[in-house]
């Protein structure tokens, strides 16, 4: 991976976050505006990135095999991150009531909002496709293992299963079916999807910028003493473990680069919403999301530099 391209991409992301922070002064950020942001990103922009990637990649039997592999590796990597986070939380905060939250924040990354657009810029359509599959594995882990850990009664019911079926997952399945049968959509549809895909990164970064401005100093101080566990695990330890694994796995370069980049992503943006739904620590989720995103602007180039030197 070209480090200068990575740095330029991170710089652009930083500028978008700054614009979002400035824009937050022009409107009231509440549940309605949050819902609009999330709906546009999750239900329009991300599915269009997925479909655009599929439309621009020549699908064959080998690609389909690699898709299955990336999906399985994504689940494994997410579980490793959760396991490391749980271990650290158990060692340092054994009596704490938020060990579950710390563990999930350590393993589940922002592979959709930031990961897919970043891979699309750095690695092209094929990288974006694999990034979308990795994100699907993260979604699967979130709404199965994550929900199971957060639930008090530890029941995996039909409602939980329905949560796994979201529009990005539907876009992946529909796109792969279209590709399998070698159907070429009309040029109008391809151009529309391409243009809608382009709004993913700006919208996601604007949302992060707005989120930064909503943090209250008292809440940061209250939860800040423990967020070092997910920050350290998600941004440094987990990418290091994945890079070590890549030394032993003989993967195509694009797949290896995609998996490495996705493993470096900050904590998932929807953490606070997920925690609120299951009566967990919502503030911890929001604070970790914001802090990990800001720190990731520094750690991603640093980790990619180390990977270029010692792995690739």
From TrEMBL:
Keyword field contains Lipoprotein: no
Sequence intervals crossing the membrane: 6-24, 36-57, 63-90, 102-123, 129-151, 163-183, 195-215, 227-249, 255-276, 283-307
Any one GO CC term of the record: plasma membrane
BP GO annotations: transmembrane transport
Pfam families (UniProt xref): Mem_trans
InterPro entries, per the entry: Mem_transp_PIN-like, Na+/solute_symporter_sf
Cited PANTHER family: AUXIN EFFLUX CARRIER FAMILY PROTEIN, TRANSPORTER AUXIN EFFLUX CARRIER EC FAMILY
Name of the molecule in the record: Permease
Organism of provenance: Domibacillus mangrovi
């Amino acid at each position: 991976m070209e480090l200068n391209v990575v740095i330029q991409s991170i710089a652009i992301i930083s500028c978008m976050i700054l614009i979002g922070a400035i824009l937050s002064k022009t409107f009231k950020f509440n549940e309605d505006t949050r819902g609009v942001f999330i709906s546009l990103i999750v239900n329009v922009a991300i599915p269009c990135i997925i479909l655009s990637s599929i439309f621009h990649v020549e699908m064959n039997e080998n690609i389909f095999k690699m898709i299955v592999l990336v999906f399985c590796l994504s689940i494994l990597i997410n579980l490793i991150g959760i396991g490391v986070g749980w271990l650290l939380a158990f060692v340092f905060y054994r009596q704490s009531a938020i060990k579950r939250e710390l563990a999930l924040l350590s393993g589940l990354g922002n592979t959709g909002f930031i990961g897919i657009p970043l891979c699309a810029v750095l690695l092209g359509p094929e990288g974006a496709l694999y990034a979308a599959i990795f994100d699907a594995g993260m979604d699967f882990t979130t709404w199965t293992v994550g929900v199971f850990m957060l639930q008090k009664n530890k029941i995996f019911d039909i409602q939980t299963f329905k949560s796994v079926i979201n529009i990005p997952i539907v876009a992946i399945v529909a796109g792969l079916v279209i590709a399998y049968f070698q159907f070429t959509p009309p040029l109008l549809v391809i151009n529309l999807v391409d243009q809608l895909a382009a709004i993913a990164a700006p919208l996601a970064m604007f949302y992060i910028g707005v989120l930064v401005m909503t943090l209250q100093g008292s809440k940061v101080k209250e939860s800040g003493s423990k967020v070092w566990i997910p920050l350290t695990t998600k941004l440094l330890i987990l990418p290091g473990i994945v890079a070590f694994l890549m030394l032993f796995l003989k993967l195509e370069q694009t797949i290896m680069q995609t998996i490495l980049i996705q493993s470096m992503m900050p904590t998932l943006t929807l953490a606070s919403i997920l925690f609120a739904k299951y009566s967990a620590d919502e503030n911890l989720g929001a604070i970790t999301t914001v802090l990990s995103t800001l720190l990731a602007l520094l750690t991603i180039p640093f980790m990619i530099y180390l990977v270029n030197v010692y792995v690739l």
